[in-house]
Amino acid sequence: MVFVSDMADGGRSGPVIVLTGFGPYGLYQNNPSAAVVRRIGSEGLSDIIPNAILHTKEIPVTYAQVEANVSRLWQTCDPDLVIHVGAHPTERTIRIEQQSFGRGYCIFDVEYQVPCNNECPCGTKAADRPQSVLISDLDCTKIAAAVSQFLNSDCLLIEPSHDPGRYLCGYIYFISLSHDTKRSLFVHVPDFDNEVTEELVIKALKLIINECIRQLRTK
């Protein structure tokens, strides 16, 4: 794996990175996505990306809060990279999502609400009516392979995925993709256990961030 700290930046200042996790809901009253985002927000990214400007946010599990917060983050932070993190039930597996869907959001959020017409709103650069699928320009297969090779972990699988679901994870991802497919990614993380610890998931997520910035700088 090539680290951003080893790459010439052409005199540019450090990248602006937005990292979000979700608050409690359902089985995830201690949401692992919020835990890793809080820790990375506290520790920073100087160990892998010097001079990175990091913005972190824990977002409540409601469609309205997702829509308001994501749009605000894009407008106020002017990010080079936005990564949303959510929890999923598959043990010992991190999934890096390649795409998301604009329609089919029929599951109630924690306030028993669904979006209008069960559709995602568009970002500022999208057409008035959302497309059914938006795909990230970041290569999730290459990201997963690079991080897996570097971690060399027998207990944590890192794989690309093409289905973030039709709940808040897919919803938040589609909104960011509608702002910019080049700079958006979603990562599903598992609950922690005695081997797949919070520290291991944080390490993997930092490596994913590094690989995203590397891809952006080499395009």
Automatic annotation (TrEMBL):
What InterPro entries does this protein map onto? Answer: Peptidase_C15, Peptidase_C15-like, Peptidase_C15-like_sf
Kindly indicate whether the keyword Hydrolase belongs to this entry.
yes
Alphabetized SUPFAM superfamilies for the sequence? Pyrrolidone carboxyl peptidase (pyroglutamate aminopeptidase)
Q: Which Pfam families match?
A: Peptidase_C15
Question: In Gene Ontology terms, what is one molecular function of this protein?
Answer: pyroglutamyl-peptidase activity
Domain of life, per UniProt, equals Eukaryota
> What is one Gene Ontology biological process annotated in the Swiss-Prot or TrEMBL record?
proteolysis
In its keyword annotation, does this UniProt entry include 4Fe-4S?
no
- GO CC aspect terms: cytosol
Its family remark reads: Belongs to the peptidase C15 family.
Q: Could you identify this protein by its name?
A: Pyroglutamyl-peptidase 1
Species of origin: Ascaris lumbricoides
